[in-house]
Amino acid sequence: MAIDVKDYLQPHVSLSISERLDLVRRRFTDESHIAVDQEAFRNDDDRAVLYICPAQVFKLNEEEDSCIVNFEDCLECGTCQVARRYTSWRNPKGGYGVTYRYG
Amino acid sequence: MSDEKFEVIIVGAGLSGVAAALTLARNGVEVLVIERGDFPGAKNLFGGILYSGVLAELVPKFWEKAPIERHIVNRRWVALDVDSQVAIDLKSAHFDKPPYNNTFTALRSQFDRWFAEQAEEEGALIICETTVEGLLTEGDRVVGVRTGRDDGDVFADCVILAEGANALLSEGAGLRPAMTPANRVNAVKEVLALPSEIIEDRFHLEGSQGAAVEYFGGAVKGMVGSAFIYTNRDSISVGVGCLIEDYLGTKTAPYELLDEFKAHPSVAPLLRGAKTVEYATKMIPEDSYDDFSDLYADGIMLVGDCAGLVNPSIHHEGTNLAMASGVFAAEAFLEARKKRDFSRTGLGSYRSRLNASWVMQDLKHYRGTVDFLRANREFIDSYPRITVELMRDYFTIDDTPKTEVRRRLIRKVRDEVSFLRLMRQLWQARKNLI
Fold this sequence. Notes:
The structure holds 2 protein chains of 2 kinds.
Chain A: H1 17-21, E1 25-27, E2 34-36, H2 38-43, H3 49-52, E3 58-61, E4 66-69, H4 79-83, E5 87-89, E6 97-99
Antiparallel strand pairs in A: 1-6, 2-5, 3-4
Chain B: E1 4-11, H1 15-26, E2 31-34, E3 49-51, H2 53-58, E4 68-80, E5 85-91, E6 103-106, H3 108-121, E7 125-127, E8 132-138, E9 141-147, E10 153-161, H4 168-172, E11 184-193, H5 196-202, E12 209-217, E13 225-231, E14 235-243, H6 244-250, H7 254-263, E15 275-285, E16 296-297, E17 300-302, H8 319-339, H9 349-356, H10 358-365, H11 369-375, H12 382-394, H13 402-416, H14 419-432
Parallel strand pairs in B: 1-2, 1-10, 2-7, 4-12, 10-17
Antiparallel strand pairs in B: 3-6, 4-5, 4-6, 8-9, 9-10, 11-14, 11-15, 12-13, 13-14, 16-17
């Protein structure tokens, strides 16, 4: 099939993180594999987990000044627990979590 | 699975684990690989380059049958500033014939699945959808693993940990130093779909030729790390990877850095019309040789990323070190098996095999690379920027006499670069960077 070059002249547009996450197959459990020590999170002036996680798993609950953990969005890199030891991360149950099509 | 016993259990079906499994099975060892993903490769990720020297020994002429993407004939290293680039460009027809410089792009979800099938054909047993939650020990000796399944304990003469960069079991068992923001990179990557004809046109390639482009300096805002574009068959892999320490220090989100990189005037034209089809992330180990633990103990060996076997220099090799370590661990087991001694002493030839090979020779040579860059940030920040600016100014045409241009450039270098410091740095760089 002939390629029409004109179809490939438009600028590439970055998707939002949630659109990007929708591209990855994830199988969920009810049980979170990530825990956050809320006290230590409150004492972290940087609130580092809010930006260091590439999947934006951690969101701020502004009313309660606590950390919401959307563990089902996790792409399983483990960066959170290396960046801040107040997060504890373990492997999801076998067969759950992400499956990459390309990888 | 209760009371099942194998000769070897391998935790993780990535490149190192499968290379070990294939070598063991080929030598008649009863080997079980435990993988937590739906299939081998399901959770595996890399930037994009498969260095295949060891693979070609394990599976001769693999390029005729394996699901690989392109063979790399063009490598480009690019320094970026805000709106300009200076590049070194290597393209050689020498790389255009077998073994293709042992450098291929691949997609791990597809390649690792195929590689695991090769091990299965040799007799390795691979079970998926199973997470190893802990090691079973008797005294100091590892005797098996606890999985998340009912009756999930499995026993073996020897366990090989091939769990990847997020080395939770290795660290938990005290077999490696802690993962820290200074020894782990976070990398994010997108796969962008583009027709093969467009890729070949845009990157000046023919047939299955491929290009690998690495970006430094302003591309990653002077952080220890780099950005990359690798060509696959009908997609390109685009990503950034930097020390977690630097993301924290600059309060930068990895995806923000990726999006800025994709929008750079030197990069954006390469991505026109490309649609993101996957977004993925992983950690990369940048452990120094000096921080390595023994990598083996009674009844256990560490291979691949969890052992920290990644060359952190501009070579940025990992896949070949992973496969080599898997093969060495398998050979060490075969030697231990002759004497039925799977203790630390019996498995000791694993480390001596690694040490005698290019794997540890390279890692030893580049033992100081990451700390050198952390301590001499000019190499990732001001030097690339100044180089770009000098080149741009030197070739700027505005009817200034060339002698005056030359004078300005010399003044700029004198103002911005301390020669004494540069000389001292270059002397150190000979061991750390080159």
